[in-house]
Fold this protein.
Amino acid sequence: MPRLFVTGGCGFIGSNFIRQLLNSDPNVHITNFDALTYAGNLANLADVANNPRYSFVKGDITNRADVMTALEENADGLIHFAAESHVDRSILDSGPFVRTNVIGTQVLLDAARAKKVKRYVQVSTDEVYGSLGATGLFTESTPLSPNSPYSASKAAADMLVMSYVHTFGMDAVITRCSNNYGPYHFPEKLIPLFITNLMNDRQVPVYGDGMQIRDWIYVTDHARGVEAAWRNGKHGEVYNFGGRCEMLNIRLTELLLELLGKPKSLIKYVQDRPGHDRRYAIDCSKAERELGWQPLVKFEVGLKDTIAWYQANQAWVNQVRSGEYLKYYETQYGTR
Ligand code: NAD
Ligand code: DAU
């Protein structure tokens, strides 16, 4: 009966991970520890809220006392998703990124040691590798070369994890995934922002020349990868996950316009993101070889399903866009 402590489970990827694992493993018990920042939404897991194998604890990973109270002794895994995750916000103010992504990770590592957690999984990102030229792929041995305050804070956290493996013999693995998309994605990131803007005939802001490349993966494929790394990853190893699906931002924008039946006049070129990484692309052959993992969802299918999800969940979109969802906790649990 595996017992997992998941951080950041009310965000985009964490909520998809929890739902998927509760459904696929009838024995697993999950505690979801989340601070409910602007990106954390209890509605993302409303369908599992009453599952007896699931519990929610509101808490901040930078608060050692909160973490030590919630984390049980000898848990089978600590899966660490919680983060400040949006690059543009890190450019406006890097403070919360250093606090949550670096200090929060340090607090969790110490707590995991103290409570003898059996395996620690650090959910990291391909952005720690920096930016690629026209050719080549990120492998697990690509040197870390982060370019934004967000990716620098994630790289610092990865380094801390590796230091605990080396110094204390901690059983930890790190996962580094490319750009996710799918249901419950906060509409500040490209795909959900563009879908929800286009649904309302609003323009979509393409940064710079739109010729940047991202490697897209459906969120449930990433979630399966994190699960595989927890169950079957080797002590101290890093695993890359990607969708083998590179696409220019402008091509993706045109595809979204096409699928939503909207005119090209809704494209608005805007000032580029400072320090904008040009290209990300992942070599995920190690995960395929060693974990028996593969991305399963084809981009055309995943993208259509994602659009359909946003169309069917207009109330969720409206709540998120208006900030109304932030009040939900108070009605359910009292003062936030
Ligand atoms: P998200 O922003 O949607 O969710 C983050 C969650 O963490 C929210 O529920 C938030 O409330 C919680 N959180 C933030 N600060 C916290 C704190 N101090 N204490 C407790 N909880 C806190 O993020 P996401 O897109 O789901 O990303 C999850 C993880 O995956 C992050 O670590 C991110 O770096 C990594 N990642 C994301 C992507 C992607 O494409 N989104 C790709 C690769 C890796
Ligand atoms: O690669 C993994 C990373 O992917 C994760 O670690 C991050 O948490 C996640 O936010 C994501 O980072 P990106 O910066 O790649 O994602 P974003 O959706 O913000 O932007 C995708 C691309 O689209 C990027 O080249 C910037 C561009 N963009 C983005 C927005 C929000 C635009 O052109 N216009 C926009 O309005």
In short: The pocket of DAU (ligand 2) is lined by residues 85-87, 125-127, 178-179, 189-190, 193, 205-207, 212, 214, 249, 273, 280 (CB under 6 Å). The longest strand covers residues 29-34. The chain has a mean pLDDT of 96.
